[in-house]
DNA sequence: GCTATTTTGTAATAATCACTAAAAAATTGT
DNA sequence: ACAATTTTTTAGTGATTATTACAAAATAGC
């Protein structure tokens, strides 16, 4: 009899959050479909029935891991991006931070949102919808910040904001693929430093 | 007894090249692993033993389809890119052509090289190596053309060619993901038109 | 027509997939 | 100690996977 904080039955023998982090790592490295439930269980240190009791099923586990990933890795960079008053600095810093995340020494896998659910069988539509939604959210983040830069007079009023946001988004997504292809972080950062140039040239601002 | 052009045994009842094109379409739309041999057979109009007799196995069929794709869709744009004397025109035209290919009305799937074999189980290493090799080849194409622009005096001598080539490559790869995410071709072209800006600004040239 | 050769369709193979039925084990409250 | 409840482990489920054994069919050369 421990305390009464936990429910009645037999207590869970694993830490749910630790297990989720382990699952995240497997999904991140291998992608949704190549990550078998057996491999997930092995990495999480639990058996299949525990996984299903705690997380529902494979796709629900993936989506929960995906949200955890987004929160853990990208919420602060996004905040800094939106908080930086100068649009050029904001873009430059964000892409340098991104290059660090995409090839951080412990998880050199590119971005999970971009890469983990590209080749997906048609049944798992909820999964591909989840990553798609997050990719659109990133593009919207770019668009919102650019729009503010127009209002601030830092970008020309006739700038094509949707196209520019899309271009920044494409560049960011492409960095993920090259991260996965195994280049050095220094190279990725050198590429990322060019993101700034996608903005209309300073003369026009 | 037809002619003696064909071998001795029972003649093949299908056109090998047509079957390859059908397989290409399935791999392109679905990706390597979600494309089951059964689905491939169905699209190709043949049974599994015919597939294995003609193409070896699934991975060999994919690689052959991949090479066919590269040749059929990208060899001419690449030639034009390398043949255009003005670097700015070369980049601008190439990315507009790319946007058209990525969302051509009959195959609105993004680029097969970029998207078809991202989530791959570790056994099919030959497949992921094949697409990786082609992605590197594209980056090298950018680097070679940019290097020539330096020699031509169209780019500053101190330009960081590898980083610039990587940036163009990242942008191109990112366009594929957005193409897959279902935007309109007009939007994709508007984004693609910004590729030009990744080059060092005209003042520095 | 006969033999050799290759392709065909049918049907099966073993392996792996996501998922779960069932019973034992561990807790809480009485 | 006992009942109620939840998690654990074990061992399966049926479906799907890529691949192939086998025999019938169709050709060429003799």
Give the oligomeric state: homodimer
Computed CA radius of gyration of chain A, to the nearest angstrom = 20 Å
In the CATH scheme, what's the topology name of the domain at 58-200 in chain A?
Tetracycline Repressor, domain 2
On the 0-100 scale, what is the average pLDDT of chain A?
Answer: 94
The proportion of strand residues of chain A reads: under 5%
What is the helix/strand order of chain A?
HHHHHHHHH
Percent helix of chain A: 55-70%
Shape of chain A: elongated
CATH superfamily of the domain at 58-200 in chain A: Tetracycline Repressor, domain 2
Number of helices of chain A: 9
Main beta-sheet annotation of chain A: none
CATH secondary-structure class of the domain at 58-200 in chain A: Mainly Alpha
Task: Sum up the structure in keywords.
DNA-binding, 205 residues, 9 helices, 64% helix, Tetracycline Repressor, domain 2, mainly alpha, homodimer
Structure description:
The structure is a homodimer of 205-residue chains. Chain A contains nine helices and no strands. The first copy, chain A, is mainly α and 205 residues long. Chain A has a domain of 143 residues: Tetracycline Repressor, domain 2. In chain A, helix 4 runs parallel beside helix 7 and helix 7 crosses helix 8. Chain A is elongated, with a radius of gyration of 20 Å. Chain A starts with 15 loop residues before the first helix and ends in a 13-residue tail after the last helix. The structure holds a DNA duplex (30 and 30 nucleotides).
């Amino acid at each position: 009899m421990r305390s009464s904080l936990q429910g009645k039955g037999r207590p869970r023998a694993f830490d749910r959050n630790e297990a989720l982090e382990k699952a995240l790592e497997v999904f991140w490295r291998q992608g949704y479909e190549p990550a078998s439930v057996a491999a997930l269980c092995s990495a999480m240190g639990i058996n299949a029935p525990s996984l299903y009791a705690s997380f529902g099923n494979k796709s629900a586990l993936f989506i929960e891991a995906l949200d955890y990933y987004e929160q853990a890795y990208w919420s602060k960079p996004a905040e800094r991006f939106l908080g930086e008053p100068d649009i050029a600095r904001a873009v430059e810093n964000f892409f340098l931070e991104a290059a660090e995340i995409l090839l951080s020494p412990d998880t050199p896998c590119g971005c999970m949102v971009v890469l983990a659910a590209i080749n997906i069988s048609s049944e798992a539509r909820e999964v591909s919808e989840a990553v798609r939604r997050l990719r659109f959210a990133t593009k919207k983040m770019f668009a919102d910040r650019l729009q503010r830069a127009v209002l601030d007079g830092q970008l020309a009023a006739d700038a094509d904001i949707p196209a520019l946001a899309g271009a920044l988004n494409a560049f960011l997504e492409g960095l993920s693929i090259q991260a996965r292809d195994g280049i050095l972080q220094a190279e990725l950062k050198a590429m990322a430093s060019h993101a700034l140039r996608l903005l209309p040239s300073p003369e026009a601002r």
